[in-house]
Amino acid sequence: MTKHRPLKIFTGNAHRQLAEEIVEYLGVEVSAASVKTFSDGEINVVIDESVRGADVFVIQPTCTPVNHNLMELLIMIDALRRASAQRITAVLPYYGYARQDRKARPRDPITAKLVANLLTVAGVQRVVTMDLHAGQIQGFFDIPVDHLLGVPILAEYFTSLGLDNMVVVSPDLGGVTRARNLADRLGVPIAIIDKYRPEPNVSQVMHIIGKVANKRVILVDDIIDTAGTITQGAQALLEKGALEVYASCTHAVLSHPALERLAASPLKEVVVTNTIPLASQNRSPLIKQLSVAPLFGQAIRNIHRDLSVSTLFA
Length: 314
What we know:
The mean pLDDT is 94. Helix 4 crosses helix 5. Strands 10-9-8-11-12-13-14 form a seven-stranded mixed sheet. A five-stranded parallel sheet has the order 1-4-5-6-7, sandwiched between helices. Strands 2-3 form a two-stranded antiparallel ribbon. It has helices spanning 16-26, 66-82, 111-122, 151-161, 176-186, 228-239, 258-264, 293-304, and strands at residues 7-11, 33-37, 43-47, 55-59, 87-92, 126-130, 145-148, 166-170, 190-199, 202-209, 216-224, 244-252, 269-273, 287-290. The protein contains eight helices and 14 strands. By secondary structure, it is an alpha/beta fold. The radius of gyration is 20 Å and the shape is globular.
C-alpha cells in the first residue's frame, strides 16, 4: 500500500463479517471506531484513530434495517470528513432503496436518487457497489461509481458443479442482460419468463420464452426478496418439462415469507452471495452462500493504488 496516503478501512454494524473477510484479503485490519445506538434510537459514532490525510473506505451494505444502517453510514462519513480524511469511499455491497429508482406513478419519490444526494452531501467522494437493481443509478451521482458484477462469482460456482444440458432463465424481461451474461460465461442458451407484476412483491407467471424441457435450469436475478417470483418461476419451469431448477441471485434480501416459500418450492439449490448477511432465521441447507470479499478487496486495492478497476467489471 502507498506510504503517502495510508489505507484505512472502517465498517458499521451492518455486515462486520464481510468487512473482516475483505481486510483479511488485503492483509490489513479494520480501523478502530465505535458505532453505538443510544436508548432513544440516535446513533453515536466515535473514530478511535487518526484519519488525517488517509484514503478511507467505509464498508456498509444498506440492508435491513435499511434506515438504521444508512444513518450509521452517513454519520460515520461525516465524522471522517470532519477528521480530515483525504478521500472517503463508500463501499455498499448492497444499495438500499435501489428499487425506488423512478416515478412509476404521479407524486412518487425517487428515493435511490435521494440516497445518492445524502451520501454526496455527507462527504463521499467515490462509491463502490455491486449489481444495482437499476444500472442508471450510477448516473444519480456526480462522483465516480464503480459497479461490480456478481455474475462472474455465480458462473464460477455453477461451472464447478459440472452440470450438463443447462439453460439460464431470466425471471422477467428486465433481467435478460444479466441472464445472457451468465449464459455466455457458461456457454449455454437462455430463456425468459414473461410475468405480470400488479403490485410490489406480487407477480404472476404468464408464459416462458425459450426451450426448457429436459434442461437443468439456472434462474438468475439480482435480488431475492420475498421469493415469490423465483418459486413461481421454478414451478412453471418444471411444468414445462425442466429436469431440475437452481435459483441464484446476488442479494439475498429474504424478507418474510421467503424462507417458507423456498423450503416449500421444488428448487434444487439457492445460490446467493454475501453482500447481505444471512440472518439466523434465513439459514437453510438449501441456500449456498458465496463470498464477494475477494472482488471488493481487489477493487479497494486498485482504487487505493490509483490503478484501473475496469477489468473487475468484466
